Amino acid sequence: MSDGGGSNGGGTFSNNDAGSVSNSGGVTGALAADGVSFAYPAPRVGSCGVHGTLKSVSLHLAPGSSTALMGSSGSGKSTLVRILLALAKPSAGTVALGAREVKPGPARSLRWYRQAVQYIPQNPAGSLDPRMTVSQLLREPLRQLRVAGNHRALVGEALERVEVPAGLLESRPGELSGGQNQRVAIARALAVQPAYLLADEPVSGLDLPLRDTVLSLLGNLVRQEGLGLLLVTHDLGTAARVCGTTAVMAHGRIVEHGPTYRVLDSPGSPEAAALVQASAALHFPPGLPAGAA
Question: What pTM was computed for the model?
Answer without folding.
Answer: 0.82
